[in-house]
Amino acid sequence: MRRHPKFGALAAIAAGLLLAASPAAQAGEKVWISLGDAAFAQLKKHAPASIAVASTASAQSEPVTAKSGRVAGKVASKVETIHLVEVDEDLLAALSGSVHEELNRCGGFMYHPNKQAGLANLQSHAIVANRPSRVTRPSYVIDEQATLTPLLAQMQSSNIGQTILDLSAFTNRYYKTAGGVSASSWLTQRWTNIAAGRSDVTVEQFSHPNWAQKSVILTIRGSDNAREVVVLGAHLDSINKNGTTETTIAPGADDDASGVASLTEILRVLMNANYKPRRTLKFMAYAAEEVGLRGSQEIAQNYASFGVNVVGVMQLDMTNYMGSPKDIYIYTDYTDGGQNDFVTRLIQTYLPTLQIGSDKCGYACSDHASWNAQGFATSMPFEAAFTQDNPFIHTANDTYANSGNQAEHSLKFARMGLAYAVELGTDGPGTAPPPDKVESFKGSLALNENKSFGPFKVKAGGSLKASTVGTGDVDVYVKIGAPASSGSYDCKSDGGSSTESCSVNVAANGDVYVQLIGYKASSYRLDVSYRPQ
Ligand code: BES
Ligand code: ZN
C-alpha cells in the first residue's frame, strides 16, 4: 500500500468555505469521490493538497472544453483518467460550482460512501464500454405491433402535464428535506393507486441509510421469464444550485418531474390494458440523483450484489424541453451501443415521424451511469443536444410554464418508453453470456519480491479480472500487451492487505500480464478470470 499525507490544508480551506457559505452547517465530514482529470484540476484549486489514492484510465472519453460558453464548450474528446480522492463533504458545492463555471458543465464527480466502494467504481470504469460478455442479451427483435399500436394511441400528454404540475408543487424534492420525503410518499401512493387490483404488481419504497428521501420502485412480476428484469428509471429529487434548504424553491419540472411523469403515463396505460409481461418490469423513481447519483448507485449495487439479471435499463432524465431541432437524442456515453441501436429502431418503427439525434454528456450525468458501472446495458434518450438543454434546470424557474405549459415533448419519450417496456417485456429468455475462464495460483512472496503470471489470451471486448486473498500485503498490477510491473500497468490494486482486485477491458484480442508484489511477506491465492480467445 502507498501511504498518503493527511489533508490538513484541505480541512482548513473547507472550514473557511464553511464560515463564508453557511454558518449553521456542521464541521465537514470526509467523503470519497471519483472524478476525471479536468474536474480533479478544479478540485486542486480549492484543495491543493488533494491526492488521488488510485487512478485508472477510463474506457469512456471526456469532452475537451473550450474556455467559455456552453455551446463552444465541447470541441473534442480524449480518453481520461479517473481519480479517487478523499475530500471534505463541504467542499463539494464549491467544486460543483467551479466545474460549472470553468468547464461549462455540471457535476463531474461521483460520490462513494467509503474507500472500498470508490475503488470498486474505479475498476468498473475500466470495463464500461460495451459488455455483452457479462449480461444476458435480449434478442432485440421488434414484433409487438399488435399489442403496441392501440396502447401508443392511448397515451395522453395532458396526464403527463398534470403529474409534472403535481410534482413541481412541492417546495422542493431535495434528498434531505421534508418536501423530498413527502414527494416520495406521494408518488408511492400515486403508483399504488394505478396498480390497484393487480396481485402481480407491488410498489415499495427503497430506503437509503444516509438520508431521508426514499426511492420508489414499482414491480410488475413477469409471468414465465420473471428472472430477467427490465428497468425504466427517472429521478425523483430536485435541487437549486444556490443551495437547497427546507424553504428553497426547486420545482424541477423538467429535471426530472418530466421523467417521472413519463414513467407514470406508461404505467397508467399498461395497467389500463391489463398488460402482463413475461419478463419482470421495474419502474424506478430514484432518490438523491442530484447529489451524485446516490440513490441509483445504492440500488444498482444492491441488484448487482444479489445477482439480479437486469437485461436492460432506460433512463428518462429531462424529457419536456425541446431545445434542439431533433426530437430524441440518444446519448452514447455510459450507455450500451447494442441497446441504443435497438432503441433507435423502436423509434423508427413506432414513432416514424420523429427525428433522432445523438450526443453525449461527457461525464456520469445521470442514473444510467450507476447501472452502467455495474455492467448492465443502459440507454439515455434525452430532450436535446447537450449544449441546448433546458437553461432553467437547478433553479426556481424550472417550471412547467418554462417548458411552454405543454407535455407534447415528454409524450414522445413516454411512447418510446412504452415500446421499450412491451418489446423487452414480452420476450422469453435472452442469450446468457459464455462463462469466464478462471485460473487459480497459490504461493508466497517475501518483502519486495515479485512474481509474474501470464500472458492470458483474452478475447476482444472481454475483460480480465485478477484478484487475490491471503496473509500479509500483496499488490496487484495488470497490463495489456506487455509484462506488468509497479512502474508500468493498466490497472493496479495496492491496498493495505492481500485482498486486492483489478480489472482491465481488452479492446482487441490480446495478451494480458499480471504481476504480484509483496509489500510485506505474504502468502496469496490469485484468481484470474477472463473470456478466453
Ligand atoms: N438532468 C441532469 C443531467 C443533465 C443536465 C444532462 C443537462 C444533460 C444536460 C442531472 O439531474 C444532473 O444535474 N446531474 C448532475 C450530475 C450528478 C452526478 C450530480 C450534473 O449534471 O451536474
Ligand atoms: Zn436530472
TrEMBL record:
Domain Peptidase M28: from-to ranges: 216-406
InterPro entries xrefs: M28_fam, Pept_M28E_Ap1, Peptidase_C_arc/bac, Peptidase_M28
Highest rank taxon of the organism: Bacteria
UniProtKB keywords: Aminopeptidase, Hydrolase, Metal-binding, Protease, Signal, Zinc
KW Acetylation (keyword) present: no
Residue ranges occupied by any Peptidase C-terminal archaeal/bacterial domain in the UniProt entry: 456-516
Signal peptide: 1-27
Protein name: M20/M25/M40 family metallo-hydrolase
Species annotation: Roseateles oligotrophus
